[in-house]
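User: Can you help me understand a structure? I only have the sequence.
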Amino acid sequence: MNVELYVQLVEGVSGKLPAKLSVVDIDQDNVVCEVLKESQDEGYVLRVYEVHNKRTQCNIKMFKALATVVECDLEERAIGDVEKVEGQQFSFEIKPFEIKTYKITFA
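Assistant: Let's start by predicting it. Here is the structure, written out as tokens:
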């Protein structure tokens, strides 16, 4: 877990990077991203939680287009599809102090 970060300077790489890029952009200050990790099978797992004891409508924008977003339990078993998925973002409602887990695949 506590592994040092190693940096390597690479020269001669072509391409352009944007001035700013967020892997996960959450539009509400009271919703915190706990983890974004590889799933046990395919895709990625995103876990978020609410910290200010208030029900909140939340939008999350990912760094690239989404193919599927499925709500899961803490053991990554599917609970149901997220209905509001458009392009790079999805929306959901989170209850006070609730933890939400999503399995995400990218287009």
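Now, to help you interpret it: The domain at 24-106 is CATH 2.60.40.2220 (Immunoglobulin-like). DSSP finds no helices and nine strands in the chain. Let me know which part you'd like to focus on.
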